[in-house]
Amino acid sequence: MSMLTFVPGEMTDPAPYRLLTSVVAPRPIAWITSVNGEGRPNLAPFSFYNAVAGFPPTIMFSVSYRRREPREKDTLRNVRETGEFVCHVVDEASAEAMIRSAVEWPEAFNEIELCGLEIAPAVDVRPPRLTCAPVAMECKVTQIIPVEGATNVMVLGRVVRFHIREALYRPEIGLVDTVALQPLTRLGGGVEYTRIGELLLLPIPSLEEAMSESA
Ligand SMILES: Cc1cc2nc3c(=O)[nH]c(=O)nc-3n(C[C@H](O)[C@H](O)[C@H](O)COP(=O)(O)O)c2cc1C
């Protein structure tokens, strides 16, 4: 089968970004609330996002500089200033509000109000929680790491409290019903998204089972 080869160093921005985001996909979306030093709230989505440690539970998201002006995004400035954020799951029902919250609103605008979203106070951190989100994770920033050679900064945060919509929690196994959660996930190029599909159960065989199968 014939293969194409691309060398990022020979490509111009944003071609490598377009390739990468369509390959490392689908990506979950972190819908992040933060506040500045005066307590003014902010909301924005980030799909350079994942879990990086299970215990203590730790997540990361990566913030790029704005293309038009070399100014830190409000979320990054806020988490530097206050060391806290709340990360929400975006479900399919919130897709339009999430997109609207990504508009590069000037700093003085409140995206939460502009998107018509309701909030509730968080318990352990100052940023508010979005009530429409089926899951909210209150987080304390543990590290802020510039990505070598890139205009991105990686923020790591420890989850200090989970809020889970009760109907989605399966107490007998300690898991959220991720299919019922209907998370919206992002693909490439800035406009492509997808929903998660059918559940596949694939337990890893023990070494003995694997050896007997390959015998
Ligand atoms: C689904 C989605 C995912 C996004 N992911 C990222 C990301 O990972 N990193 C980033 O810097 N911007 C990302 N953006 C763009 C930011 O949301 C956008 O720049 C936003 O205005 C930043 O807001 P702030 O200045 O209030 O922090 C994403 C936008 C959308 C719609």
The largest sheet has its strands arranged as 2-1-5-8-9-4-3
String of helices and strands:
HEEEEHEHHEEEEEEHEEH
In whole angstroms, how far apart are the ends?
31 Å
Largest sheet: number of strands, sense, barrel closure: 7 strands, antiparallel
Instruction: State the CATH architecture.
Output: Roll
Class by SSE composition = alpha+beta
Large-scale geometry: globular
Task: Quickly list its features.
215 residues; alpha+beta; Pnp Oxidase, Chain A; 6 helices; 13 strands; binds flavin mononucleotide
Short description:
The chain is an alpha+beta fold and 215 residues long. Helix content is 19%, strand content 33%. It contains six helices and 13 strands.
Describe it for me?
- By secondary structure, the protein is α+β, with helices and mostly antiparallel strands.
- It is 19% helix and 33% strand.
- It has a single domain (8-214), classed as Pnp Oxidase, Chain A.
- The strands form four sheets. A seven-stranded antiparallel beta sheet has the order 2-1-5-8-9-4-3.
- The longest helix has 9 residues, at 15-23.
- The radius of gyration is 19 Å and the shape is globular.
- The chain starts with 14 loop residues before the first helix and ends with a helix.
- The model has no long low-confidence stretch (mean pLDDT 96).
- Flavin mononucleotide binds at residues 29, 42, 44-48, 62-64, 73-75, 99, 102, 104, 186.
